[in-house]
Structures are given as C-alpha cells and as structure tokens.
Design goal:
- It catalyses: DNA(n) + a 2'-deoxyribonucleoside 5'-triphosphate = DNA(n+1) + diphosphate.
- Keywords: DNA replication, DNA-directed DNA polymerase, Nucleotidyltransferase, Transferase.
- This is DNA polymerase III subunit delta.
- InterPro entries: DNA_pol3_clamp-load_cplx_C (IPR008921), DNA_pol3_delta-like_C (IPR048466), DNA_pol3_delta_N (IPR010372), DNA_polIII_delta (IPR005790), P-loop_NTPase (IPR027417).
- One of its GO terms (cellular component) is DNA polymerase III complex.
- Strand 5 and strand 6 form a beta hairpin.
- With about 325 residues, the protein is an alpha/beta fold.
- It has 16 helices and seven strands.
- The protein has a five-stranded parallel sheet, with helices on both faces. A two-stranded antiparallel ribbon has the order 5-6.
- About 55% of the residues lie in helices and about 10% in strands.
- The protein has three domains: about 15-140, Rossmann fold, CATH 3.40.50.300; about 150-210, Helicase, Ruva Protein, domain 3; about 215-335, Zinc Finger, Delta Prime, domain 3 (Up-down Bundle).
- Helix 12 crosses helix 14 and helix 13 (about 275-280) crosses helix 14 (about 285-295).
C-alpha cells in the first residue's frame, strides 16, 4: 500500500489535515489503488466516523486481520471526536500505540488556516506531537489549499500528472477561472485534456472556450445580503448561482469566501488593512477592498461559527441526512 525504502518500517498511522479535502481524498484513493484488486481492496477497507463509531468499533476495525491481502485500511473521519476529555484522549492514544503493522489507520481532520497556523491542529497540538514522536510508525501530511499565486504552478503539475501539457498563459487563465478550488481545477483539467485529445498543449483560448469563471461577484453579493439580514436577496443570489453552477461548486465558492473572510478578519484584528490583505493573501486590490468591507460586518467568532455550519452542511449532504440544494437554502436563510 505504501512505498517505503526496502526493509524500512511501513507507517501504520497517517494523519491528514488541512483545508484541501480534494488532496486528502486523492491521497486515500491512491492508498486504495495500491491495494491491488478493487474487490479485495473494498473488503479490506473500513470507513468510520469518529462522531458515531464507538471505541470498540474502532478497536475491532484496526485489529482485524486483512482478508487475502497484506494490509487493512481503516479511514477515520473526525478522529478528534473520540478524544473528548482526558479519558477519551488517553484511550485514543492507547489505541494508536496498539495499531498492528498489518493495518493502515488514516485520520482525516478538516481544518482551516488561522493566524499563520491551523485552527485546530496547531503546531503544538498533542496529536501532531504524538505523530512526530512515533517515528516511522506514523506519517503527517498537511493538505493546504494553494495560494492564488501558487495556483498556476499547481495546475501545471496536475496537467503533467494527467499526462498532458499546458501553456503558462493557459495555466494562469484557468487559475483565474477556478481560483483555489483544487477539485474544480482537476475536473476542468480533465475536460481540457479530453478536448485537445493529447494532440497539443492546452492553450488560453481553450480555457476561454470551455471553462466558465466561478462568479466572485455573485458570492460577494450573496454574503453581503446574508450579513445584512436581507434573506430574500441572499436566496435570490443563491438561486441565480445555482442556475449556472452545480450545487457542489456553489458550496465550494461559499466555503472559500468565508475562509477568505476569516483570514481578512485576522489581519484586521491585528491592525492591518486592505494593503496588508492584498499582500499577505495575494489578492488584487479591488478584491482586498471588498474583503475589508465585508469582514467588518462580522466578528471572528461569528465567522468561525458560520464556517463550522458549512462543515456541518458538508457532512450532512455526504451522509445523506440532507441534500445539498436544500442545505444551501437553509444555510443562506440562517446565515
């Protein structure tokens, strides 16, 4: 499943965290692909949610022998939900110490940047310390979204990964269209490479023809209306976006916008202004000015509460508790 140096100890615990959920999903999909036959891989893969699974569920999953294979893969979302209180943390660490070499336990933690670090798994967090001290038994992977300035390079790398080529101008044009949405960028790259059919590099004209921009202005208008209590206007903006975009992409746009506002609010709270936001967040001046105006409508606690509501909406839609379209309506009505 993994590819350490010959004779080296394979990691048993993988800690993946950050705000690039697409990167985390890709990492996990790569692990599953390396398990060989898809049918056997499915038999040897267990998905658990730390908010629902019991300690016994987790202990059984990690200790069960693989079926006709070398390793079992256990994927645990929301692992920190199993660590409430001193006793919960103690039990969880004991379980990590007992993970056998035939099991790969993947811990997935969605997080967001905050004050130059991460909101939950900060540099001194006990779980990150445990991973660092575990040596070759554990591996940490930070999955952070690229900055707008890094996005063209990320796109060029992904194009090469998919077996194609793209001009620098086209990479910049696609970055402008998708912003830092790596999942959307991956989809658009696949579409562009299919269009050119491997006969030539993707050019800026192809991006203009096939890739619609995400619609930054409408997102600003939507958040403005929601912040001011103009619910009818906010819902109208939402439904306009949904006429042209898939609900999943609109959700990504909303999530990104509130993440930008958290970063902008942090800079404002530290005494900065539009200039610092433009420079530190690598945004154009007109976007920085809009972020200042909008971030001042919220406190940091308000923004973090809204962001956590978005994370809950994502969880509910993935678990089938609520469809995303309805969830977006409810979110905007209560924002």
């Amino acid at each position: 499943m993994d590819s350490p140096a010959p004779g080296a100890e394979k990691p048993c615990i993988f800690l993946l965290f950050g705000d690039d959920t697409h990167a985390m999903e890709s990492f996990v999909h790569g692990m599953i692909a390396r398990m060989g036959d898809p049918g056997m891989a499915e038999l040897n893969t267990t998905h658990l949610d730390g908010k629902i699974a019991s300690d016994e569920d987790l202990r059984t999953a990690v200790s069960s022998l693989p079926f006709l294979g070398d390793r079992r893969l256990v994927i645990l979302n929301h692992p920190l939900a199993r660590t409430q209180g001193a006793e919960g943390k103690k039990r969880f660490l004991a379980l990590l110490d007992e993970v056998p070499p035939f099991t790969a336990l993947v811990l997935l933690v969605e997080d967001q940047p905050f004050r130059g670090d991460w909101d939950t798994l900060r540099a001194g967090h006990w779980l990150r310390k445990w991973v660092a001290e575990a040596g070759p038994r554990a591996l940490e992977r930070v999955c952070g979204l690229p900055t707008p300035g890094d996005m063209p390079g990320w796109i060029q790398k992904e194009v090469r990964k998919q077996g194609g080529t793209i001009s620098p101008e086209a990479a910049r044009a696609l970055a402008a269209a998708v912003e830092t949405n790596t999942e959307l960028a991956t989809q658009e790259i696949t579409k562009l490479l299919t269009y050119v059919d491997g006969k030539r590099a993707v050019e800026a004209e192809d991006v203009d023809l096939l890739c619609a921009p995400m619609g930054q202005g409408n997102i600003f208008d939507l958040v403005d209306a929601a912040a001011e209590g103009r619910t009818a206007n906010a819902l109208r903006e939402l439904h306009t976006l949904l006429e042209f975009q898939d609900p999943l992409l609109v959700f990504g746009m909303l999530t990104r916008q509130y993440r930008l506002l958290i970063q902008a609010r942090e800079i404002l709270d530290a005494g900065g202004g539009a200039g610092e936001i433009a420079r530190e967040m690598n945004q154009r001046d007109f976007v920085a000015n809009k972020l200042v105006r909008q971030a001042r409508r919220f406190s940091m606690n308000d923004l973090k509460a809204v962001y956590h509501r978005l994370l809950q909406l994502d969880e509910d839609s993935k678990s089938g508790q609520n469809d995303l379209m309805t969830g977006l309506d409810i979110f905007v009505a209560g924002a």
